[in-house]
Amino acid sequence: MRITELLTRETILLSMSAASKQDAVNELVGVLEKAGKITNRDAFKEAILKREQQSTTGVGDGIAIPHAKTSVVKEAAIVFGRSEAGIDYQSLDGQPAHLFFMIAAPEGANNTHLEALARLSSILMKAEAREKLLGAKTADDVIGIINSYDKDENEEKVERSNKKFIVAVTACPTGIAHTYMAADSLKAKAAEMGVDIKVETNGSGGAKNVLTKEDIENAEAVIIAADTKVDMDRFAGKPLIDVPVADGIRKPKDLIEKAVKKDAPLYKASGNAAAEKKESRGGVYKHLMNGVSNMLPFVVGGGILIAISFMFGYNAFNPDDPSYHPIAKALMDIGGGSGAFGLLVPILAGFIALSIADRPGFAPGMVGGLLAATGGGGFLGGLVAGFLAGYLVLGLKKLFAGLPASLEGIKTILLYPLFGIALTGFIMLFLVNKPVGALNQAITDWLSGLGTGNAVLLGVVLGLMMAFDMGGPVNKAAYVFGTGLLANGVYEPMAAIMAAGMVPPLGIALATTIFKNKFSKEDQDAGKANYIMGLSFITEGAIPFAAADPLRVIPSVMAGSAVAGGLTMMFNIGLRAPHGGLFVVPLVEGGWLLYLAAILIGSIVSAVLLGLLKKPVTK
Questions:
Q1: At what angle do helices 492-514 and 521-535 cross, to 10 degrees?
Q2: How confident is the model over 547-564, as pLDDT tens digits?
Q3: 113 an active-site residue?
Q4: Which of 98, 113, 172, 579 is catalytic?
Q5: Is 172 among the residues known to form the active site?
Q6: Are residues 548 and 22 in contact, defined by beta-carbon separation less than 8 angstroms?
Q7: Of all helices (H) and strands (E), which one includes residue 98?
Q8: Strand 97-106 with 12-13, pairing
């Protein structure tokens, strides 16, 4: 199939009027709708924008290739759009985009469609083709230019020479454009540098130009430029460079130079390529988050139940107190130390160890966590116990690797639990609990005795962290900090963290309502949804706005969150439930009106800053 069977006169727009990324997408989707290529304009636009959130399709050199594969596409099609002025499409090279190719692929796109789309990506890598498209006068000129370059090539064959030889694999989530552009960029740069290369492309139509065992054995090194899963174990023992697909497009020279010099670690097969890749990018953080995510249901459920028990009176759970109420006691028993909260530290440690050493690490981790909880080590002791148990069991696995195969079954049911629990327990009891317990108590005492000024500063820092990456590692670090303090009976930082987490979506919602001239109609509609997300403590509602305009949005929401966090600490507000949103407002300690005021003031600060910093939208 030729590309011009997908790109027709009715899908060519030689003069785009759009001035922003959102407007460009809207305009190109409109061409598809008018041509009858899609059944649902809004659904296709949503699919395009969802792809943009993964990584920009503004690939640089003045080109943008927004694309999506969805069931609302009636037949595969390509829209060509040209902007003489250029549009800020958040391209990889930071330059405006002039040439747009919007690709619409149906859910069941066949290989001939996908191969045509791959050839289009290859054509656009040629500077002379781009120059001709910029100068085209008519739709027929565009079709003629594409046809002149559209040659259906068979799989490449790399002839061995005395040159250095490397191999590469490219892949992107959609498998339509970036996969092939990265491949062509690597091949073009390798030819320029006098290096032989063979590139396997893992596109929507399946793997093409697949690397053979001989290819891999003869290669100096391997380049993986991919944003999706790649079969990695075949590269065991080879120097391997693993980067996002965008680097294959933008940094081919750096990657090839590194490969030729073998300046990369040797890849070690894991038997589970996906797990190996995840581990290399996650490490300690991944193990920690595995523990925290499994602990959170206990923290949330237990914390809210404890907070509800206080609504009967702060001592209503105590049978010796005049305010005693049996329901309050039941709530405290279920949520407190004899219930959900009593399991926090063991669960945290157990699942950290499970992440590190798989199932054999779970029991030693749980026992180590329990010893930390009962021995004064607390939350910090649980962290130590989890990593200690996990890596101890990994050591035991290596130690017992030489045992006869007939004893394989006894390792899991006897050796790992026996030695894992014993070693973890002895180390926790005699080496860890006392010093970590002392440190834990010192931190708790310091936080409990903070003066107003220092408390406000802590709230400001926590607020900045919550808004910096809105659900990323920095945000989660603040959350983990607050969760650990809850287990130690310090509740004020959690209130600051929860208030700060509500500000980004609420601030954006207010800004889109008050400063309508600074936001497009689509942004205003999305802003309304942010009211609900902010009030429900869904910080991620702010992410699309931050992705579209990070230099203005992120500082604005960080400032508002810092104000909210600082105010809650100044008002001495506490929160035992590690969750935000309106439904926990009645559970705050120290005045729910002041808590709401802190959130509202922070949101207004963010909204005003956005209104001042953002430029008016051009009609």
A1: 160
A2: 678 889 999 999 999 999
A3: no
A4: 172
A5: yes
A6: yes
A7: strand 97-106
A8: unpaired
